[in-house]
Amino acid sequence: xxxxxxxxxxxxxxxxxxxxxxxxxxxxxxxxxxxxxxxxxxxxxxxxxxxxxxxxxxxxxxxxxxxxxxxxxxxxxxxxxxxxxxxxxxxxxxxxxxxxxxxxxxxxxxxxxxxxxxxxxxxxxxxxxxxxxxxxxxxxxxxxxxxxxxxxxxxxxxxxxxxxxxxxxxxxxxxxxx
Length: 178
Description:
This protein is an alpha/beta fold. Helices cover 47% and strands 17% of the residues. Strands 2-1-3 form a three-stranded parallel beta sheet, sandwiched between helices. Strands 4-5 form a two-stranded parallel sheet. A two-stranded antiparallel sheet has the order 6-7. The two termini are 25 Å apart.
């Protein structure tokens, strides 16, 4: 089994989600008592917030390099916003980064879809780093109007940081944070 390095702590709740989904997937595939072999490098989210996401490259790179030194086979960045630097980090390390947008795009294309909605923090929804990969593959990526983005950002942040309900009701529709 390959060993996965998880760069987490961005917030701890997203790390928990990644850890759980990875292990559930491995167990579903292999059955029995099989789970992922993985190592979590948990950053202090307060440090990330102190320097801001735009300036967090060094923190994410250092965590990725430390995981690589302990011989992981692949690295996962356990937060959407961390993917802002995925391409740059990949140039600095030899272990492949399993990019959530690439993998999600593969599933979307396999299902025959051509148009998808993107919900996340305002930062993730408004920056191109999260929309470019699907659009390069012919997918149309839709984001909410500015008012709804800000409202969803508030709900998303509270859920991520404080681990509230995994499901929120927004204007009569259910949105799940995946």
